[in-house]
Each structure stands twice: as C-alpha cells, then as structure tokens.
MGF factor
Amino acid sequence: LGALLWAPWRALDGAPLAELSGDQDFQLFLHKNLEFTRKIKGDVDALQHAVCETFQLCKEEELLLVRQDLGIPQAPLEQCHRRTFQADACFSQIRNGLRTYQGSLAAVLKLLPAHAGLVETLQLDAANLSSNIQQQMEDLGLATVTYPTEGPGPLPTFSSSFRHQVGGFFILANFQRFLETAYRALRHLARL
C-alpha cells in the first residue's frame, strides 16, 4: 500500500513551480499548514481509534462489501498527483475535499457523541485549513472558485446503526487518506 501511495509523487519531481518556490510568504504558508495538516491527521487518527474501540470496526478489508453498498465517496486529489501538477488545481481539490469532509463529519458526530468536542474541533480545523488555502490562492493570484455559503451538502443516510458505524469508519478512513495525500503535496511544494 505504501508503494502505491508513494508512486505518484515521483512524477512531481519535475513539476513547474519555480515561480512559487522562492516566495518566503508562500514557504511560510506551506510550513504552517504542513503542521496544521499533521495535527488534523492526528485528530482523525484519534477518532478512528474511538470507532475501533467503541464498535470493534478496525480493519478496512473486513468491511469492503458493506462499503460498496454505502457508496461513501473519496474526495478526489488526482490534480495533486499528475505529472502536469498545477498548484491552483491541487489547492482547489484540497480545499473542496476539506469542505466535503467537514460536512461528512456530522455523521461521525452523531456516531460518537462522547467525542463531540474532538469532532467539532476537527470540523473547525478543516474549515480553517480550507480558508487558509483559499486565502493563499488569492494572495498568489491563482484561479479560485467561490462557493455558495450554504451548507456543505446532504449528509450520508444509513439504513441501520451498523451501516452508520461502518459509514463513520469509512468517512474517517477516506479523510485520513485524503490528508496523507494533501500533506505530501504541501511537503513537496515546500521542498522546491
């Protein structure tokens, strides 16, 4: 799995971002948000442990059949992998994905009321990281998309409490993978 996750990053070695790499404000943004992303990943990990301990849902491979039935999507980040890497497209996908997971965490909040403080902090952190990326894109003059201020979209619906538990498990698992990819993209940009 590690090799599969790492393989797309070798293609970024020649990414054309020289115009951004020397900007000290951009480098500061990257370093601060690398730490912020790492903190968010740690919080998602803590919630994954809570789902494992509370519901004994710990191994993804045991739940794959139910996953297919639930249709819980993974926010795309292919623009952060491609050989023709574009900072604006990657940042837009990261920002969009953060908004998606921010909304999906409401299902986790209902699932883990004892961890409401952590889930709410995670939702706020996802919103803040999304705002940081939006602001940096505007500061750099990168193409941005303005989204309506209404809610993040419909919550997933689950027909049973078991499906809700599995759905929460996969929301967190998908969010963790998303954050790992976003972290690698930010780290790659910081090294240029």
In short: The chain has a mean pLDDT of 82. The radius of gyration is 17 Å.
